[in-house]
Amino acid sequence: MKTAFPPKLFLRFFRWFCHPELRDYIEGDLMELYNERHNDLGKRKADLKFIIDVLLLFRPGIIKPSKQNHSLNNYAMFKSYFKVGWRNLLKQKGYSLINVGGLALGMAVAILIGLWIHDEFSYNKIFKNYDRIALVMQNQVFNGEIETWSSQAMQLGPAIRNDYSNHFEHVVMVRGTFDHKLTFNNNSVRKMGAFMDTEAPEMLSLQMLKGTRSGLKDPYSILLSESSAKAIFGDVDALDKIIKYNDKTEVKVTGIYKDIPYNCDYADLEVILPFQLTVILDNLESRVGWGNSWFRCMVQLKEGADINTASNAIKDVKYKGVMAHGNVNDDIRFKPELFLHPMSKWRLYSDFKNGVSVGGAIKYVWMFGVVGTFVLILACINFMNLSTARSEKRAKEVGIRKTVGSIRSQLISQFFTESLLIAFLAFVFSLLLVQLSLPWFNEVSNKHLTLLLSSPLFWMVCISFTITTGLIAGSYPALYLSSFKPIRVLKGALYSGRSASIPRKVLVVVQFTVSVTLIIGTIIVYKQIQFAQNRPIGYNVNGIISAPIRTEEIKKHFTVFREELLKTGAVKEVNATDSWITETYVTNSGFTWEGKDPNMSEEFVTLRVTPEFGKTVDWQIVEGRDFSRDIASDTLAFIINESAARYMGIEHPVGETMTWLPDNGTYKIVGVVKDLVSQNPYAPVKQMIYILNYKRINYINMKLNPNFSAHEAIAKVESVVKKYDPSNPFEYKFMDEEFANKFKGEKRIAAIAFVVSTLAIIISCLGLLGLSSFVAEQRTKELGIRKILGASVAQLWQLLSKDFIVLVLTSCIIAIPLSFYFMNNWLMQYQYRITISWSIYALSGMMAILITLATVSFQTIRAAIANPVKSLRSE
Amino acid sequence: MKKYQLGEFEEVVMLTVGILYNEAYGVSIKKEIEERLSRKVSVGALQTALKRLEDKGYLKSHEGEATQERAGRPKRYFVITALGKRALEHIRSTREKLWGAIPKIALNPGKFDTAF
Questions:
Q1: Residue B52 belongs to domain with CATH number
Q2: The dihedral of CA A672, A674, A677, A682: what is its sign?
Q3: Domains in chain B: how many in total?
Q4: Strand A271-274 with A187-196, pairing
Q5: Is A833 within 8 Å of A827 (Cβ atoms)?
Q6: Residues B21-36: pLDDT tens digits?
Q7: Nearest-CA distance from A32 to chain B in Å?
Q8: What residues of A are in contact with residue B43 (Cβ under 8 Å)?
Q9: What phi, psi does A332 have (nearest 5°)?
Q10: Shortest distance, CA A67 to any CA of chain B (angstroms)
Q11: ipTM for the assembly
């Protein structure tokens, strides 16, 4: 009988997967069956049944174990790996400290930055309608440049609500946020809040503790946050109580909502008042038109509505509105175009240039993300370097293990076990470090971060991140050490020359490139801040306190009020303005003058002042004179700054006249002052006009008498203010502090950059310390012989340090163009900026080399002064 | 008591091994079961059961002759061990106990239908 053959592929498949102990017998059975079927049923059916049999045999009992001896000793081996790894850690405490410490530092930085980024991305997400809320913004053309505003006219809300309800579920006009005075039973408090349309609680998904979300229907109502209800009413039930609002009117508490968490816009919303209330109280209907962009307009898209379609639909609403109201020659010329800015972009993509979104804070998220990753990589590099450097020490162990029967994969898993052990130890330490540094970090970054210990996601991310770190950090030693040939290592012929140390050198160069780049970056950030801070600001804010005016009494009797203050002796000069003197952002347009380009759409920052403004802040008059109380015509006088003179293109503006359209009169320019930096300290000063006005004033500015202590002087001022405004608490700000606040954001970045680059350099130096001690140890005998032959300590030190210096110099050379590229980009956002000079590079290079020398010398000098007798006697 | 663990198919395999005595190897067991119980048995299911029974110590095996129709592969003969015998007996006695405990009426309900 001729033997038939079943399908070869399946037979081979069967032979491949079958447990070797069973293979022959089962194959015999299969063949016997196949032959029988072949004879009875024919080849095709026999083949088919054979295939089915083979496939059905593919099951756990029959398949061979993935590794031989699988169940035998893997557990024991892993136990042994742990034991050996642990003993290795303890045996070399110095190395372990550097390894674990460096890695823990790196991971701590990465975790902190990770938490920060997570916080940034979860901004505003507490709002349930996060995906559907948007802000209506407008692009307007001023002198050929598009400016993007987030503010809108009051008329916009109803226009959108009435005509575009197919796109939007809610439309809410907002005015605020600012503080409001609330009085209940003679107990007054001031609370931050906004005026909002009735649908706002629904849109912001407020959690109502009492009352309902429809509490803003009546114009004379108010919603309180839980904590402000507590501040006003204590433990009394606040619902339906009547509160006196701003001493003007009475409002009823119609609801209490849970405090809004900090990580969102409107976190400071302590009270919400109906928008209709401000319309009534401030007489807005008759006062403001399409040209007054004083408000914000928020919309909530309908379920499933597309934001781009909606954005396109409302593009011309303002244009049409302005046209319909016949105000043709005013706002039409700015070509207003509306668009929607989704809530998800409010925080991180808030910058617009020429009407196009150009990012915003997202660049810091990127920056810190990259920096965090780099610091972590630095720490991993340390680990790799130290392990490979120590490989000589462990080469013999590898040789013996291989001789005794370890296969390469076992050695790989051994080294991975060790690196994972270290990574997990480092992770535990890094959690501790993060916990300890969080209060500081929160203060610097102005956040409320916590370790998200109860979040499974946090643990998943952290643990997978630890494992990844362990695997990356352990990959090089695991793959490199396990490749040793046992015969060569046991013979002691491992010294494979210079090439062995090349990867190590490359890694050190990478480390120092990153560190030096960070150092250069930090120095540039600091220099830029210092530069802006040292900019001559044109006036003196020291010793000036400012207080908001909260009663008409002061405005009405300002002259008497001022004299009374002066009489106390505590203040040297007093004036009043309509903006904070360090934050002048009120702009006006409609000015014409002789020689003005008719196509110019001009705009000036205006500051309404009382005559003593200049004396109070010590401004410097370049031309003309200051305002005077004694010259009655000064109510129709302007003082402009130098920028304004340039802006208008007049060389000697004093004596020129300016007309303020449509009906504000004609003014004479009586003086020109040096620019006062009262806006963005990094930008050129805007063109400004100072106008005398006694009515539209909001803040009193007082120059304190330096002969009094600030405390005494303020007490005296307070007693005078209280006389005019007994019901409000006296609140004031120091203007020098306010001015310093302008640098807060940059200082925050500088502080974080400083800490991160310090950590980066510490981590790199830890690695260097380990490496240098290793090199010194390795060359002990060589040094001993050199010393006997007459080398001096200095020569030996030079010999050992030279290599490292070369590496660091290489890094500096790479870091210079890198940092120039990044920092130049960063500086571009400031108009008033430093130029990056060579001294910065020289300084950072010097610093890097000095730090390196200091680190390395610790080991090299010790090796150089060691007694050669000792080093040569051993063995 | 879970002293002797034996699944239904395993029990069938063991009994068949008993029936075939000395002639029990993969193909013969398969054919015997298919013939007597008229049910399909796959090689995979049978071999898994045999391996498990051997691991439990109910069966032992020895290598047999190789024939041409088996492409030169040896047969593997199975016999029941003493432990296997006890396991079979245990199962049988527990079954019998259960049978004995069933009241007659439960298996012959027809007769008494009218009474209820």
A1: 1.10.10.10
A2: positive
A3: 1
A4: parallel
A5: yes
A6: 888 998 999 999 999 9
A7: 5
A8: 26, 29-30, 33, 53, 56-57
A9: -60, -35
A10: 19
A11: 0.84
